[in-house]
From TrEMBL:
Annotated GO CC locations: cytoplasm; nucleus
Name of the featured protein: Aryl-hydrocarbon-interacting protein-like 1
Source species of the chain: Muraenolepis orangiensis (Patagonian moray cod)
Function in brief: May be important in protein trafficking and/or protein folding and stabilization.
SUPFAM superfamilies, per database record: FKBP-like, TPR-like
Domain AIP/AIPL N-terminal FKBP-type PPIase residue range list: 33-157
Keywords (A to Z) from UniProt: Cytoplasm, Nucleus, Repeat, TPR repeat
GO molecular function: peptidyl-prolyl cis-trans isomerase activity
Major location (coarse): cytoplasm
Length: 331
């Protein structure tokens, strides 16, 4: 077991390591694609050593895949200095902790059973944060405003080589992710045709998550980013088609509006799906406006739109008759 004094770590500045409990066996092989499972506790560097996060409290250990561009790159460096069952405390200066609040937010959302990706918000995490000025957790907002040094206490549980575990989509690298997108897209389309809408949404969603992951490494609004955005929008609209069948009309309006607001002028299908959703929730005016936009963008849809507007008029008449009858009964 290494001695208990602080050792400067791996020649990286702004880091100090103290081993609290020695590990066992040889150094594990931390090769690209290895999955590392560990518990972590994050504390402020103050007298109280205020705990920010503790994976043992939520009960679920954390997993990262080596070489997979985990948002908090420094964790990979720290873990690669450890043996199995070792517990070590790392003091990390602010140069390494700036992104911690964003990572913490994702981990907390997963622990709360929410979708960590917030994937329908089309901007990446950083841009979102500046737009809303809040991560939804007061302590993380504080840290975001003013990054501080942090203590990470890590306990290494397991290191699995790439061949030893089933790699889910999130564990893929970007090349593999890009290859996964058309496969997931195709699976989603097949399930949609079979009327298995719930399962289809999962495939589309997974593909969108792959794209969003790759997109974070590209410069916004440049050609590679825009290509990915276009792919993402196509998948999101397929997802919306499933939601229409599942009668989740307000969610359709939310997703399609996101796309329309981000990319005005070239999203005929988004207007069409939003019009259909508006029609289902009796927003007559909005539905008519969206159908008009569909025709502006794609005159070839004239026949289809005419039919939809006929259905809309008929449904509004039925609703008005029903409303009249209802009110008649009341008075």
């Amino acid at each position: 077991m290494a001695d208990m004094e602080e050792t400067l770590m791996l020649g990286v500045e702004g880091l100090r390591k103290t081993i609290l409990h020695g590990g066992t066996g040889d150094m594990p092989r931390f090769i690209t694609g290895a999955k590392v499972t560990f518990h972590f506790r994050t504390q402020l560097v103050n007298e109280e050593r205020t705990v920010i996060d503790d994976s043992k409290v939520t009960g679920t250990p954390m997993e990262v895949v080596v070489g997979n561009m985990f948002k908090l790159e420094i964790w990979e460096t720290l873990l690669c200095s450890m043996r199995i069952d070792e517990v070590a405390e790392f003091w990390c200066d602010t140069i390494h902790t700036g992104l911690y609040p964003l990572v913490s937010k994702s981990m907390r959302r997963i622990a709360e059973g929410k979708d960590p990706v917030d994937w329908h918000i089309h901007t990446c995490g950083m841009a979102n944060m500046f737009a809303y000025h809040t991560l939804g957790y007061d302590d993380l907002d504080e840290l975001m405003k003013e990054p501080k040094p942090l203590y990470f206490i890590l306990e290494l549980i397991e290191v699995q080589q790439p061949s030893e575990y089933n790699r889910e989509t999130w564990a893929l690298n970007d090349v593999e992710r890009l290859k996964a997108v058309p496969v997931l897209h195709g699976q989603g389309n097949k399930l949609y045709k079979l009327g298995r809408y719930q399962e289809a949404t999962q495939k589309y969603k997974e593909a969108v998550v792959c794209i969003k992951n790759i997109q974070t490494k590209e410069k916004a609004w440049e050609v590679p980013w825009l290509k990915l955005e276009k792919m993402g929008n196509t998948l999101t609209l397929n997802y919306c088609q499933c939601l229409l069948r599942m009668e989740e009309y307000y969610e359709v309006i939310e997703h399609t509006s996101d796309i329309i607001n981000q990319h005005p002028g070239n999203e005929g299908k988004a207007f069409y799906l939003r019009a259909k959703a508006h029609m289902e929730v009796w927003n007559e005016e909005e539905a008519r406006q969206d159908y008009t936009r569909v025709l502006d963008l794609d005159p070839g849809m004239k026949k289809q739109v005419k039919k939809e507007l006929g259905v809309l008029s008929m449904r509004m008449e039925e609703k008005n008759l029903l409303d009249k009858a209802k009110y008649k009964g009341m008075f």
